[in-house]
Design goal:
- The protein is an alpha+beta fold and 144 residues long.
- Helices cover 34% and strands 10% of the residues.
- The protein contains 4 helices and 4 strands.
- Strands 1-4-3-2 form a 4-stranded mixed β-sheet.
- The longest helix is centred in the middle third of the chain and has 17 residues.
- The chain is extended and about 95 Å long.
């Protein structure tokens, strides 16, 4: 079971889990990313066990130091209700966010410029190149 509690309405401190892009703009998610960003350097330069401690401290901070407490919520069913997820899933969300914050975004392709007026075609100047005759190999004669 991945749920610890069921609530209908997220608060401004709750972290909403899911794949919907609009969740990124939820105030709790914005605050969560700001808090996570303070730990990225330490996280990336840590051992595996230290990384677990860092992730745990972020989850604890969200749950215990905010008023109202920040909960990690997901819409797990078709019922549309928000459910508080367990520690394992909250930690997974936190470690994923730490790694994502440490990874630079790929560069966007350069914007293509609107085509301007066609440039007139330029004629290439004719160059007088001397024709080179290849010498016939000795003993071979070509007859047209």
């Amino acid at each position: 079971d991945n749920t610890a509690d069921t609530k209908n309405e997220p608060t401004q401190n709750d972290i909403l889990l899911g794949r919907v892009g609009s969740l990124d703009r939820h105030p709790g998610n914005v605050n969560f990313r700001a808090i996570v960003s303070q730990y990225v350097d330490a996280y990336m330069n840590s051992t595996k066990s230290q990384k677990s401690i860092i992730a745990r401290s972020i989850v604890d901070k969200m749950r215990n130091e905010l008023n109202p407490p920040g909960r990690f919520l997901a819409q797990l069913n078709e019922d549309g209700l928000w459910h508080e997820v367990d520690d394992r899933r909250a930690l997974r969300k936190t470690t994923h966010t730490l790694r994502a914050a440490a990874t630079p975004l790929p560069k966007a392709p350069p914007e293509t410029e609107e085509p301007g007026p066609e440039a007139p075609e330029l004629e290439e100047p004719e160059l007088d190149e001397p024709e080179l005759e290849e010498p016939e190999p000795e003993g071979v004669s070509y007859q047209p």
